[in-house]
Structures are given as C-alpha cells and as structure tokens.
Amino acid sequence: MDENLKPVYEAILEGDMGGAKNGVQAALAADVPAADLLHKALIPAMGEVGRLFEDGEYFVPEMLIAARAMKAGLEILKPLLVDSGVEPVGKVAIGTVKGDLHDIGKNLVAMMMEGAGFEIMDLGTDVSPEKFVEAAQNGADIIGLSALLTTTMPSMETTVKAIVEAGLRDQVKIIIGGAPVTVEYAQRIGADGYASDASQAASLAKGFMA
Amino acid sequence: MPIDFSPERWQKIKDTYSAWWSGELDRPIIPVIVPGRALDRPEPPAPLLSQVTCADFSWSPEQLVDRIDYEYSRYTLLGDAYPWFNLDCFGPGVVAAMMGAKLDNSSGRVWFWPPDDRPIQDIHLILEPDNIWLQRIKNFCAAAMERWQGQVLVSMTDLGGNLDIPASFRTTEKLLMDLIDYPEEVERLTWEAHECWHKAYAAINEVLQPVNPGYSDWSGIYSDQPSYMLQCDFSYMISPKMFGRFVLPELQATCKRLPRTFYHLDGIGQIPHLDQILSIPELDGVQWIHGDGKPDCAHWPEIYQKIHAAGKRIQLHTGDFNAIDAVTEQIGTANGIQYQMIYASPEREPEIRAKLASYGIYN
After folding, report:
1. Does A59 touch chain B (CB under 8 A)?
2. Taking a C-beta distance cutoff of 8 angstroms, is the pair B224, B155 a contact?
3. Which of B181, B238, B291 sits opposite A179 (nearest CB)?
4. pLDDT, tens digit (0-9, with 9 covering 90-100), for B133-158
C-alpha cells in the first residue's frame, strides 16, 4: 500500500478518528487524489473491518469507532470527490420498518455500506412503507429494511408490497435483515436478498451494483 | 367465581420449588395455564395492565388489580402453575425511568430514551424516591397485596440489567463507543446503576412483603427467598474481553447480594460470554433464549449440556413438552429443569393432564 494511504487505512482499522483525519489531510497535501484515498484506503479499510467482524475479532464497538473514523475522513473527501466527478457506487435508502424503533443494526449496515462507497439515505426508525416508496421514487437503487422484532417483520412484507404497487419494484433491489429475519422469509415476501450482518449486507449491495 | 387456587396448592408449590432449589426434585417443573373458566361476573371496565396501557394513569391501581383478578379467575392452573402476576408491563429496564429516563409506550411497546443529551462525564444515575413510575408500581403492588392477601404472587417488575440501564441515558450506540473512548466512566455508571437497581428492588419488596407469598420476576420461577433473572442484553454486541471488564464484576456482585439468581442469556451473540457467566459460583441457573426466527430450545444441546455441567439449573423458554423431553435427554436428567410457562387451549386439557401425569405431576 502507498505510504500516504497506509496511515489512513490503519487509523480506520484502529478507530482513530483524529488519525484518519490527519492521514487524509496529509495524503491530500502530498497530492494523492481523493478518489485514490476513497478506493485504496477508506473502502479497503472498511472491508477489512467487515472481515474482522465476521471472523469474530471485532465486535460492534470496534466496528462503530472504525466507521466513525472512516466518516471523519470521508467528510474531508466528499467535496473533492464531487468536484472530481467521482460517483458513489449506488444510492441506498435504509430504515427500520414501521413499529420498530431499534436502530443499531440499521446504523451498522448504513456505515458499512457508506464504507463500501454507497451514498446513504438514512430514513431512521419506525419508517412507513410510504417513506420507502418515496425513497425509491427519489432514486434509491437499493432499499434496506431492518427489523428486530417478530411483531414488526410483517411491516417488511407490507413495504415490499407498497413498492410493487407503486410500480417501482423493477427499479430497486430490496435487502432485508435483523435478528428474527431469515433467507426463507426474504424469499417468501419477495425481497431480493437477506444479510445476516452489516458486512454481508455491504457485500450483497455491491453484488447488486456490479 | 374467584381465582381457583387453595392454600394447600400454594403449599404444594412451595414444597415443590423447595425441592427443586435444593436439587432434590427428579422431574422438571412444568406450569400450565388453561384459560376459559366460565365466570359469573361481568368483565371490569379497566384494561389489562400491559406495555400498551401502563402509562394510562386514569385507572386506579385498585381498578387495574380488579381487572387482573377477573382475568386470572378465568384460568385453570395445571401442573406447577401458581397465580403469578408478571409485573413486566412497565417495560424492560423500567429502573431507568425511575432515575429520570423517558418512558415512551406510544408505539404499543415500552422504550426508554435519555432525558437529555449530555456528555457521559455529566451523567449520574440516582434513584428518585418520588419518581412517578416507582410510585405507580409501588401503589399497584400495595393494591394487589390488599386485594389478594397473598393468593396471587406479584413478580418484581422488569428492572433491567447492567449496561442496559446506562444505555437508556446515553443511547446504545454512544455507550458502545464509550466502552473504548471512556471506559472508566462506563465502569462508574455500571456501579451507579447497580446501587440504584438494588435500591429499587428493595423499595418494591418493602411493599410486596410479607404478604406476597414469595419472590419471582418475569421468568415466573418461584423462590421463597429474594431472587431475580439477571441480564445484560447490551452484551450481545461486545467481546468476551469487554464482558469480563464491564459486565462480569457487577453480575458477580449482584449474585452475592441476592440469595438466588438466574441469568437471561439472550441470543447467539451472548454465547461467547457463557463460560464467564457460568464461572460465577453464586449464580443458580441460566435461561437460554435462542431468539426469534431460530430453532426452539430442543435444538441447542451444547448450550444446555454446558449449563448443566457447570452445576446450574435451566429454565426452558419456548417449545412444548417435546422440548422438555429433548433437553432432559440431552443433559441426562430432569433435575434442575424448569419450563417457563405453557399456555394451552381448553380442548387440550385432557391431553395436558395425561402428559403431566407421565412426569408424576397431578392436580
């Protein structure tokens, strides 16, 4: 890895927000293009965070501080990326479905997807089907639905149906996740995919955009 | 028609659990509730106390108790069931509300939110003696003791657990990062929560005892001594190393303070902590919750074998008689197993009675 990129990569892995900011600024000062920082440091670092999480070496706190460091670096890069015409991998609208106020899982998925190069529309918690439909109308490529309760899982099916009825089903991919959710349930309600954790969700989303 | 449970049956419950706690009961404890007894009185107007209705203060504690009495009068209690009102209706971790966190049940389910947004250094957890939720719960308990005179056991409310309580003041996401950013502050909060938790436990028991016929909590496990189902749902998201630093010491301390304790092991994310939990000598048992969408309790032999091998009792959470038989076979004994509660339709009563008889349980 380029010696200007390595400090950024390592700061993100260590959850060092200040280190990530400083590393990005130092790399930019050394004329490293913003796109290189994004594609060769930030995205690979979050990919490694995902791998460490899947392997049981990182847990949620480590993942959260890594994502916080990544976002700090990304905030510096965003205007430069826009100026240089770098497009996000895709646009993801994500939310916890109607009746459910859990947000950690949804937030982790959003962070990992942002770390994978996606633009995120975070719709929050207790999100109505109409809000998801609106997000699809506003250009979301992927809709991410989260639920932590068996009692709110039916809201996922309602949301999928609302997207179908709005005539938008062919325009978006729908990913679902959450503790009680299964791949069988995803198939049954007509979602395109199921992810058991945030890292897998990001991989799945990248696969859809490939 | 009043609640159908005689003092003699209560004594039998106490004797059965006494044998179970001392390891001398060679069968599982199986409580079964069959609703549907016909009543000769009208349904009272008050709603059943639940997470949906807990914030409606327009009903007096006496009216709420009367409504519960009506409901329980409809029950036929079979096996090891006893009249038990589960006071978890103020939400999981209501002790946070007793310290000033916001209780919100507008979604039909209780959630707790921070009273304000402040740095962790400025958060101090203090039980408010005049807090409306603590007073409401105490007033309800007093009315229940007055009405039932010990015929119905009112459980301890769902107080919440280590780190779950600080999370209600900080938000879960911030507290997760605090574990790395401000570990000493998190430790301070866990011990402040510990003291508040025990103060709330004592304050509610002051009202319940000595009329309440024993001690229980949302698990329904009966004890003639103070007991509780301990938990730390927050620990689902942290490493065993962090569990050892932030959760285990407080758990150990509470297990020393209460005569009888169980641990609510909630979901696969907590399995990595099981060895540390089982290392607490004073802990009496573990309730394994496999989680929604996962196979029922017959499908986790390694977990139950590990709990049993550590000399701890087991509470089964879901499934049916088949699950009880399966776990009994997995650990090689029925000694130390308690099933949380089976609700059965009236049509199943003959079948249920026959099955209970096969365990040597007769009513």
Report:
1. yes
2. no
3. B291
4. 999 999 999 999 999 999 999 999 99
